[in-house]
Structures are given as C-alpha cells and as structure tokens.
C-alpha cells in the first residue's frame, strides 16, 4: 500500500475515533447532572414482623439481603431526596411454623437431616414491589411484614411507635384463615 493510501486510512480512522470519543463524552455528561436527583446515601436496613406465629428467615431490599428481622444491617442505598415513583423490590422467606420441634440426630450434633428437610420444605418465599412514602430525611429503610404477605416500608428517621411514625399496625397480628385477593 502506498504511503498516501496509508495516510488516508489513518486519517479516516482518527476522524471516526475522535467523533466516537466526542459523542461518548457528550452522552456521559448528559446523564450526570440532574440537580441532585442521583445523590444517594447508604442507610441501615431493618424489619418488623407484625405477624404472630411466623418468622422471617431472611429478606432483601433491592438485592441487599438481611438475615432475619434484626435491625441495623448495613447498607442499602437510598436517594437523599424523595421523589415521586420511588419503589423498592422486597423479597422474603417465612417459616410458618418456627416453633416446630425438629428432632436431633441420634448420634453427633445437629438436627436429623430428614426431619429438617421436611420442616424446610414448608418455608415460603414472596416478593413485592413497594412504593416508598415521602420522607424529608432518611436513615435507611424499615420493612414491615404484615398479614397476607402485605409489606410496607418506611424510610424516614422516626422510630416505630413514635407519634410521627406513619405505620401504626401492632406487632402481634394474626394471619386470617383466608386473605383477600
């Protein structure tokens, strides 16, 4: 190939590469500044089980998984400023009979594996997309597990039981015989 042809090919490649780089930069910059709409902070995850007689084995909020319903597990990312349409995806597993006696092995430590497998087969898993109510300031997310696989979330700074806490359901609710559809 002649030097002139090589020079033309090199210039064409350079021009296309420069145009691609400029377009890529423009697209990246266009999505960056949305007046604080994309500012997130980490917050704790916690949960409150309102259903008597069942336990929550684990739950997750947008993929951030927590064992049980304890509080203070770090972290979930939540927008610094609330905006309409905020939704979280909740997944959870319940043990509908947490007080069932599972026999121990005859020899050695631990549960009888067959009995444990029968117990574990009764676990149920659920998921729901839950809107986040408006908040002024967030310290994380508290998930409330209610009867009939209903879920509410709170993302403000008040504590459960406080006058300003919006979720008022008690923590010893019974699961009805049939749930509304």
Question: What can be said about this structure in brief?
Answer:
With 181 residues, this protein is an alpha+beta fold. The chain has helices at 3-30, 113-120, and strands at residues 40-49, 55-61, 64-67, 73-79, 87-95, 124-131, 140-146, 150-154.
Structural summary, described in words:
This protein is of the alpha+beta class and 181 residues long. It folds into two domains: 1-32; 40-154, no CATH class. Helix content is 20%, strand content 31%. It contains two helices and eight strands; from the N terminus they run αβββββαβββ. The chain has helices spanning 3-30, 113-120; strands at 40-49, 55-61, 64-67, 73-79, 87-95, 124-131, 140-146, 150-154. The strands form two sheets. A four-stranded mixed β-sheet has the order 4-1-7-8, with no helix packed on it. It has a four-stranded antiparallel β-sheet with strand order 3-2-5-6, with no helix packed on it. A hairpin with a 3-residue loop joins strand 7 and strand 8. The chain is globular and about 65 Å long. InterPro entries: DUF3304. Residues 1-21 form the signal peptide. Keywords: Signal.
């Amino acid at each position: 190939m002649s030097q002139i042809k090589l020079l033309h090919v090199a210039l064409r490649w350079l021009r296309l590469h420069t145009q691609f780089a400029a377009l890529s930069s423009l697209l990246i910059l266009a999505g960056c500044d949305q007046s604080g709409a994309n500012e997130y902070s980490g917050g704790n995850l916690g949960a409150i089980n309102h259903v008597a007689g069942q336990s929550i084995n684990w739950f997750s909020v947008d993929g951030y998984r927590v064992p049980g319903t304890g509080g203070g597990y770090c972290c979930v990312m939540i927008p610094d400023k609330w905006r309409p349409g905020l939704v979280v995806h909740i997944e959870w597993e319940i043990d509908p009979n947490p007080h069932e006696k599972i026999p121990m092995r005859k020899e050695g430590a631990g549960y009888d594996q067959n009995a444990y497998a029968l117990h574990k087969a009764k676990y149920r898993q659920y998921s729901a997309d839950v809107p986040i109510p408006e908040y002024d300031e967030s310290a994380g997310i508290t998930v409330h597990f209610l009867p009939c696989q209903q879920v509410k979330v709170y993302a403000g700074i008040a504590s459960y039981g406080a006058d300003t806490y919006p979720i008022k359901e008690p923590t010893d609710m019974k699961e009805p015989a049939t749930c509304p559809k």
